[in-house]
Amino acid sequence: VIRPEPCGVCGSRIRFGKSAIKCCQCQLLLHTKCREQCPSLCVPRPHHHAWPREGVLADFAPSTPPLVPTLVVQCVTEVETRGLTETGLYRVPGAEQLVREWKRKLLRAGGALPALSGVTDIHVVCGVLKDFLRGLKEPLVTFRLHPAFLRAADIPDDAASDTALRHVVSKLPPANRDTLAFLMLHLLRVSQSPDCKMDVLNLSRVFGPTLVGHSSANPTPLAIMEDTPRQCKVVARLLSLPPSFWRGFVGTEQENLVPV
């Protein structure tokens, strides 16, 4: 292994320099020790249906707008269907093994996702969504625009900060912009649920590192320390923008966001 990748059976990363086994047909990668647990039958998947194990957001987006990955739509739909009465939504962790299993299952399924109604614990669904977003090769706000988001959120005047953020959001790649809009509308609904006890501040702490991240794939310890409070500030500012702004990106094609 040259670049660390997750094992397709146990979900743990296979480290640099370690031996691994890869199927020449479906490209399943696994630890040598996990070979016995590997499914015996291999079904090669058409390239255009299968999703990569990791990539930028556009690699997972559909071909018609709004460009929100089906996995994101399905997780959000499930959370809003039966999770808006759960205390600590997105803050309370789901069982790590189940999160890994379901994320792997959804990525293998590509566009035809299995129903998430079979996941008993809604916190596992929340974990899958967060893990998917964290696993992208670059954060939702992208490496290129990361500094611009931080600068916009740092503007002391609220109106000027909002204007700057709207401008930076409009510069995002279409898939990133649509997905960010879809997630902001969802998080606003979560923040407005009294049972969840997850206000904008709590949600910004949870999603700051996930959505904003850093300006490079390998940030220095100093950058990590300096970025963390600013990441939360960006998400809090984004959540302060009116829902009508976000609906402008996804509202007109909302009927396309029905999960398969």
UniProtKB/TrEMBL annotation:
Start and end residues of each Phorbol-ester/DAG-type domain: 1-42
Keyword Metal-binding carried by entry: yes
Single GO molecular function: metal ion binding
Name of the protein in its database record: RGAP1 protein
Positions of transmembrane segments: none
GO cellular component assignments: centralspindlin complex; cleavage furrow; midbody; nucleus; spindle midzone
Residue ranges annotated for the Rho-GAP domain, each copy included: 55-246
Zinc recorded as keyword: yes
Keywords on record: Metal-binding, Zinc
GO biological process: mitotic cytokinesis; mitotic spindle midzone assembly; Rho protein signal transduction
Gene source species: Machaerirhynchus nigripectus
Coiled-coil segments: none
